[in-house]
Structures are given as structure tokens and as C-alpha cells.
Amino acid sequence: MRVMMQSKQMEMDEAFAASLLYDDDQTDDQAVAREWQNMEDSLISLSDDEKFAKSLQEQELNRSTSTQQQSHVGSSSHDSSDDSTHSLPPDVNIDPDNMTYEELNQLGESIGAVNKGLSKRRIGQIPTHKFTSSSRTRNLVSEKTQCPICIIDFKEGDTLSTLPCAHIYHEECISLWLQQNKICCVCTTEL
Length: 191
Fold this sequence. Notes:
The chain is mostly helical and 191 residues long. Among the domains are: 2-73; 120-180, Herpes Virus-1 (2-Layer Sandwich). The protein is 57% helix and 5% strand. It is built from 5 helices and 3 strands, in the order H-H-H-E-H-E-E-H. It has helices spanning 2-76, 101-111, 120-124, 135-141, 171-180, and strands at residues 128-130, 159-162, 168-170. Strands 1-2-3 form a 3-stranded antiparallel sheet, with helices on both faces. Residues 55-98 are annotated as: Disordered. This is RING-type domain-containing protein. GO terms for molecular function: ubiquitin-protein transferase activity; zinc ion binding. It comes from Arabidopsis thaliana. Keywords: Metal-binding, Zinc, Zinc-finger.
């Protein structure tokens, strides 16, 4: 009888263990199901975000396309206007701090390049002389014996340009600099 009771007890223990195991599996299944549902909800939310972003991009594209078409229509009626100067409509408020990279690029393209340098005619008016080892030229060059732009020593026969501020450069070096800037690159004196 004792054996039978032990056998019955073992059956009950096994049944109890199986029920616990089944309950744990069911709890795990419920947790996995909840996790999958959350992931699906996130994907749906992400999909909604993507749709919203795409619609914003399309609106921006439509707006920029219509702006370009308007500018082409406006420019075709003013064929005699200078291409290097572009004007924006007076009612457009431009705030570069709140513009995207693409908007800033588009603005730069619509405005065009701004030349801050000197004209070639004005650059040609800057006095030049040949570098020689004579004392007269040495006084012009003072103690500087190299070009501040290329940092190469002046050689016999080099053509040098002297700016009004008395700084001396290779003619080619300062000409290229002054096409982009109106100032001496050493002392920033405006020419």
C-alpha cells in the first residue's frame, strides 16, 4: 500500500509539475505575443512617420518646383537683365538660421556668386617691379625676402607687387588673392 501511495503521490507531483510548466509556457507565450504586438505597433508608427516625412518632402518639392517655375517665368520677361544679379520677391522673408541644407543651397544658387575681390583692371594698377639684389630693391622689400602667400623666397628677376600698405608679394600670388578679396592678406588693409 505504501508503494501505491508513493506511486499516486508521484503521479500527482508530475501532474502538478506539468501544470506549472504549462502555466509558465502560457505566461511566456503571452509575453512573447505582447512583445510582437508592441513591435508591430512600432512598425506601424514608423510607417506613419515615414508617410508623414514623405508627404513633407513632396510638399517641399512642389513648393520649390513652383518657385523655380515662377522665377523662370519672371526671368524670361526680363531678358535684358544682368544674370549675375538676382533679386528675390520683396514679400519673401529669409531666415538662414531656420533653413535646411538643401534650402540654403537653393538660396545660394538663386542669388548667385558674390564677387568680393578687385576687378582685373584695378589689380593691374598695382605697382610692380623686378626683384634684384641691388640695395634699392632691398629697401623696397625691406627685411622680408619671401612672399607671404606662397612662402617662397624672392629670386632675382621675380616680378613683385607692392600694395599701398607696403607689403610685397609675387605678382601672380597677390593677383589671385585680390581676385577673391579686397584686403592685404598680412595686415587686412582694404584696397
